[in-house]
Records
---
Amino acid sequence: MFVVVIMFTSSLACNSCHAEWAPSCIGCHNEYDPQEPGYNMVTNEEKWGSWVEYIGTYEAKETTLGIRTSENGETEVIPVTPGMILTIDKASYSNDENDETIFHRVFAPVAPHTTSKEGRDCLSCHNNPVALGYGEGELSYSIESGSGRWKFESTYANNSNDGLPGDSWIGFMQNRTGTVSTRTDVSPFTIEQQQKILTVGACLTCHDQDSEIMTELQFKVNKL
């Protein structure tokens, strides 16, 4: 399978191809409602006022792919899913409009029990915005003035907290720094890695994945 060119130095975890789907929730918004009945665990009594979690879109779909890096520097492509796209509105509790909003966008490695005999095909990785970490939307390739160009239009609007689409892990052709995962050894694809994946994806827009020319490309890439 051509997904081996995701990184020339990476190996593929079995479930990166053979996990058919995983649960995904793209957002939780937590807000304090003074009219919501609650329970005070310290005083052991009922009270008025409680935090309410408003859950975002819940789905079951193909996983995103990311990189796990071992202590000795070896890398492996693994499946990941949104672990926490979370907003906590502190101002709703403090009544201070200037109070800081807590926001996290981190993905988590998964080993879903949805193993299928048939693995993902080339297009489902190299031409799939969800697999790449961009989220749902239209990923298209066109040739303009003799040069190929990829474009991405997200299904979801950008989150005001970080400017990224609601369900994404990374921006299109962007790097992310800071806390990006629930595990310190897991990260999204870098710009360089995205370029390598989409280079093969560009070929697949015209050539069948089982064609002779794509087989030759796979052989050449594996020799690098």
---
Amino acid sequence: AVILHTGLQLLANLSILLRPFLPFTADKLAASLGINNTDWKAAGNPALLSVGSEVAKLGLLFRQIEDAEIESQVEKLHARRPKTEEKEESADIKPAAPLSLPSPSPDSPSSTAIAPIKSNIEYPQFEALDLRIVTVKACIPVPKADKLLQLTVSLGFEERTVLSGIAEYYQPAELIGRQLILIANLAPRKIRGIESRGMLLMADGPDGKPILLSPVESAEDGSIVK
């Protein structure tokens, strides 16, 4: 009886202490114990329940979460996870090198480790990306930013400014006239006061050098990459 009495007093105090974190659960617990005084100052009272107090039947405080519901939420989290960690001064996606490229010898000092395949995505997630062929019309260094180049690219129906953190690997002159692949529907982002509208697709090359991805054959600016 003493143990039961002590346990009920603990539950009564918990109904007050849990209120800031689990208000609805605390209300259920307090109602079943017949506690009207839920003021924070009442917590810690070893005799919060008076002798002879009636305790109502208490149902489940928490519903059981099924495995299917957990898996569904995990899939949603994976779907929202960014595909890459972006640096403040880089507006490029640098995916792992395509598997169709020959892998460098593991004994080579300049070999690049191939990243493991990421979690599966559904086709609509890929379909949401708008990949376009663009031609570089102009390219200049960004002042006071050693890693950034400012490219003007043509989609055929319009020209855009795109910033790319490749200045230490590419000279502006060698990019002018080159066709590249752009994620065209990425939300604009301001970097160093310049609005960048899109990201260039790149692969990781030897020694960490980014390799700009280009179509093997020339295509019309604005062509959709499928």
---
Amino acid sequence: MSQDQDELVEWLGRCVLPCEAYVRGWLRRASVQPVEIDDIIQEAYSRISEVRLFRRIANPRAYFLEVARNILYEQLRRARIVRIDTVAELESLNIVDDRPSQEQAAITREDIARLKRLIDQLPDRCRKMFVMRKIQGLSQKQIAEALGVTENTVETQVGRGFRLILNAWAGDTQENSERRNVDHERTRLRRKSD
């Protein structure tokens, strides 16, 4: 099995499999017959396992539910007789839209830019290993071989980079929080004096 396949199997077991009971419950509430539920779940696993960019799925539970729902819709379109309670359940389904709001998207862009700046500020050796490990997804062994260092060195440098970024992030967050508190207090005092 290739490394990508190993990672996919691990991801499915860690992120998708725990959601199966939730998806099965939703299918039961949609009045899907037990034998059909098994078929839908199996087909959903099959489709999810074909996704090449599975690492980018931010909410595996919502994704799994959406895949199962799409399979159910396909079956209902092909069926000649559809139970009314199944249609009612589908209509009442509120799958959370994982797309961020415009405000959240702007905050995310700012956070990504901030993270990039913090990574760029790391010492050269530390930054190179951190990027190879955390952004490019290379294993410690691959990085060690590519750079001619030990795996322990890679682990140490990546850990150091992670700590430096977390400390800088926390410091920035504390400063921003204090600045917001001061601004809030000024605004409150202005309103009070008016």
---
Amino acid sequence: MPNLDPDSATKIINRLKRIEGQARGIQRMIAEGQDCKLVVGQLNALRAAVQNATKTLIGEYLECCVKAELARGGDCREAIKKTMDLLLGSK
């Protein structure tokens, strides 16, 4: 299966950098003894950010795979199946 195009990869890497900053902020909150409710709220936001990054990656990957398959003159169903397996954690 093909890799992501450079623009898509950059977009996802930028999301992950923001997530990394969020995680560092949460670590700082815990080290400073911030209120647990605030920390949990930030952890929930972090989880949502990771889920959104995952959705974006899967969507970009699927688009990339389907384009590559169609360019080869093939049927995009196999690319979609492989991407769904990736999304669902199947092998």
